[in-house]
Amino acid sequence: MADDSQEQSSEADPNGAVRFAMFESLRFRDFRLIWLGQTSHALALWAQMIALPLLVLEMTDNSAAQLGGVMAARTLPTLFLGVWAGVVVDWFDRRSILIATKWGSFLLAVLFAVLLIGGWMELWMVYAWVVARGSTQAFDQPARFSMVPTILPGHLITNGMALLSSTQNVMRIVGAAGAGLFAEFFGLTGTFILIAVIYSSGVIAIHMLHIADHARPAKSGLRAMTSGLAEGASFAIRRPEIRGVLLISLVYFAFGMSYMQVFAPLFAVEVLDIGRGGLGMMLSITGLGALGAALYVAKAQPTRLGLILPLDVAGFGVALILFTASTYVPGTLGLAVPMALMLVIGALQTTFMSLSRSLMVQVAPDEMRGRILSFVSLDRSMMAFGGAAGGFLAGAYGVQITQIGFGVVCIVGGLVVLAVTPGFRAYKGEGTTKRRSQVKPVTPVSVTEPASASRSAGD
Fold first, then answer.
1. pTM for this predicted structure
2. Most buried residue, 83, 113, 210, 352, by most Cβ within 10 Å?
3. What are the residues whose beta carbons fall under 8 Å from the beta carbon of 19, sequence distance 6 or more?
């Protein structure tokens, strides 16, 4: 039952605009549970992001091409399952889908650890495992993020998305650095055992959710779901805000995110020569920058999302180029400056992720949110292209030259999308500009009233 003593803690300034507390969304019980489940998931994921590339490099004698191939295979399921995952999320209970994905992640992590312990692991098994793991992830993200507007009032959606991003970033600091050090002392097998243990806590948190069912499409059956997919695609094409997000996400995932999947391990091992612990430190530093940006977004709740997102991707490209150029500097500066620039890279990354999701769930109607969010999976699947291309090009022309080229594409792509999408550029979302007259105190409700219980603050 909601706490009768809790009231809306927003504060109004003299001009009537409302300022919201940085952690306002955490007052809502079910959002806290999703946040805790995401925290566990993120910790395991970031530990895996360190351990898996190192394992592939160890198994293949530092093959950049094989590393790119594994990272590409990891994202291929989103190409084939991503949009259908959104249809499933709109037609079926989102809580049950999220529980199933958490169990899938946990059981796959246990299987991977067992294969390593037994000494049975082969490279083809790594490929098969990342495809299976990517399949669970294809359903996890649209289910999780579609729940946020059901739990939170509209003016807190950007705040909630930023706080979910903050879990990724805190765990990037802890998980990346911790996994790097853990791998140094206990080996990669020990690290994957730890990852399986971490995944188990996410299963527990999501099982505790008590969330109201969402508005579902009226018709059921495969034919209705197929036409529903077409309906979602038509909605995305008609809305300039959604088109803009999909265009800029295509650039970001194909040419920006490959730095995390492929280039960071190669820089750590081949260019900077800092090994496993150094790779963990690199990604932890990006987590520091990302955490600062996530908390700023949660507090400020910016509204000019259509302007910020393409400029963010262009800035991301600039940061990647500066990072790469700084690795040419000899001596201590050649290590200190790249590490400092990792702060900027992390900040720009989390700003893009939190604001793009916020825009999409604000524009999409409840019964269509899963489908609209899943269309980003088509862009995410381009990480497969970016990862594979980055690995092969790095093997042919060098890590640094290839990363600079990808950074240039991010700059050009961001500026082009900004120039050719006026409807997207003009979009303003809900946030701190919401007027005081529109903000109402949270009304305590009984948990026996499912239609509103999911938005009750407190326990």
1. 0.67
2. 352
3. 10, 11, 12, 13, 432
